[in-house]
Specification:
With 274 residues, the protein is α/β, with parallel strands linked by helices. It has 13 helices and eight strands.
């Protein structure tokens, strides 16, 4: 029997999902649903926008207003939705390739504008849906079907990229640290401005198999053993942080005006609301 949360927030006639056994995306999708519930949002005023990729299947499962768009364009569509009706809570679920490769330009300009979107990047370090090609977040030296001898590109740090482009809230969570992920997504939703949360997923089918990471349990255990909360990291030495990665709220700015607020002021100024 599905849980009450699943019955309330998912299109149960679309379940079970089609993600591979062991994929972390189902955990992250549930975290998003729980965060929406915890924020007490009216489901009729929530819009989930996705692009193309494994992560983007979430829009088909979640029982809100949903928009499944073209590859890399989720943030562009979401921008249009938010400008058309600023009262809506617009949440983008995207992947590492969808957001930072073909959709990278949309990402940095949405950050720059500080438009009130919550963007959650399900990062599995690879193009999982199309055959295991390396993505902009595949670590240097790791393998993919298009990098059989190791990836020579250096990978993006997505929250760092977003912060540099102007995002006023950034964070990182993992599929393993589900409770922390829920709280972080809640904070992103409540933040008035552009929020980006990187959700580190696991892909045992392609990334794990190609790089001998083991099964899903081993990959999740690796997340547990190597993630360091940003507050704890502040008390650690560089030597102690070697090989680790940070999770939690990474940056937050409250004094930067939000894009649709400024846009509505222009409309009011020229009498467009009459």
């Amino acid at each position: 029997m599905p849980s009450k949360l699943v019955e309330k927030t998912m299109r149960t006639n679309r379940l079970p999902h089609i993600w591979c056994p062991g994929c972390g995306h189902g955990i992250l999708m549930r975290d998003v649903a729980q965060a929406i519930e915890n924020c007490g949002l009216d489901p009729d005023k929530v819009v989930i926008v996705s692009g193309i990729g494994c992560s983007s299947r979430a829009a088909g499962y979640m029982n809100y207003n949903t928009l499944h768009t073209t590859h890399g364009r989720a943030i562009a569509f979401a921008t249009g939705v938010k400008l058309a009706n600023p009262d809506l809570h617009v949440i983008v679920i995207t992947g590492d390739g969808d957001a930072t490769a073909i959709g990278g330009n949309h990402l940095i300009h949405a950050c720059r504008r500080n438009i009130d979107l919550t963007v959650i990047v399900f990062n599995n370090n690879i193009y999982g849906m199309t055959g295991g090609q390396y993505s902009p977040t595949t670590p240097h030296g790791e393998k993919g079907t298009t990098a059989p001898y190791g990836n020579i590109d250096y990978n993006f740090d997505i929250p760092q990229l977003a912060q540099a482009a102007g995002a006023t809230f950034t964070g990182r969570c993992t599929a393993y640290h589900a409770q922390q992920a829920i709280k972080l997504i809640e904070a992103g939703i409540r933040h008035h401005g552009f929020s980006l949360i990187e959700g580190l997923s696991v892909c045992p089918t392609y990334y794990g198999r190609k790089n001998k990471k083991g099964n899903s349990v081993k990959m999740l255990t690796w997340q547990k053993d190597n993630a360091v909360d940003v507050k704890a990291a502040a008390k650690m030495t560089p030597e102690q942080l070697e090989g680790k990665f940070l999770i939690g709220e990474l940056s937050s700015v409250e004094n930067k005006e939000e894009y649709t607020d400024m846009y509505m002021k222009i409309i009011e100024k020229v009498g467009g609301d009459k």
